[in-house]
Amino acid sequence: MARILVTAATGRVGSALTQRLVAASHEVLAVTSRPEATEKLKETGAIPVVADLHRPETLQQSAEGVDAVFLATPDHPSQDALERSLITQFATAGTPHIVKLSAQSAGLDPPVSFGALHRRSEQALEASGLPYTILRAGFKSYSNVTIPCETPRHEPDACYERPRG
């Protein structure tokens, strides 16, 4: 059983991951910025952590002693700076394996693209000295989590039942 910190635990990917990790008997610290979400997180069997990702020090105590971190943040013009700060914070808390949810376009560098921001975050992770895995989900794999099974044209055999409620 591993101790895993999941950022964006109330988002589409984070909530699905939290449920699967808890079902696999891992100790899951589920990060949310919304205090009102803690009861729902407790119901899943996770340990709620209310933190502000823009203030990485709010995760300091929770990040200590974790075996792994799932790092996902919303697309934002300062996303790379935010994730670099979080990576630094996780490194000071130990040597957790970081799993970063990135973007398919992370290797490209168009003038306006969140892929470029993701790539800068990936580079910070690569230089951090921490063990890491980078997930560059394409639209098809990402849409299987974010688009409901009932949506027309969704492949039934690739359908993902997302959490309800």
What attributes does this structure have?
6-stranded parallel β-sheet; 6 helices; 165 residues; single chain; 6 strands
How would you characterize this protein structure?
Helix 1 links the parallel strand 1 and strand 2 (27-32). Helix content is 36%, strand content 16%. Helix 4 packs parallel to helix 5. Strands 3-2-1-4-5-6 form a six-stranded parallel sheet, with helices on both faces. It has 165 residues and is of the alpha/beta class. The model is unreliable at 151-160 (pLDDT under 50). The protein is built from six helices and six strands; from the N terminus they run E-H-E-H-E-H-E-H-E-H-E-H.
Q: Characterize the main sheet.
A: 6 strands, parallel
Proportion in helices? 25-40%
- N- and C-termini, Cα separation: 28 Å
Strand order across the biggest sheet?
Answer: 3-2-1-4-5-6
Task: Write down the secondary-structure element order.
Answer: EHEHEHEHEHEH
Structural class: alpha/beta
| Dominant shape | globular
* DSSP strand content: 15-25%
Give the assembly state of these chains.
single chain
Count of DSSP helices? 6
Runs with pLDDT <50, length 5+? 151-160
Rg from Cα? 16 Å
Question: What's the layout of helices and strands?
Answer:
Elements: E1 3-6, H1 12-23, E2 27-32, H2 38-44, E3 47-50, H3 60-63, E4 68-71, H4 79-92, E5 97-101, H5 114-127, E6 132-135, H6 139-146
Parallel strand pairs: 1-2, 1-4, 2-3, 4-5, 5-6
Short description:
The protein is α/β, with parallel strands linked by helices. The protein has 6 helices and 6 strands, in the order E-H-E-H-E-H-E-H-E-H-E-H.
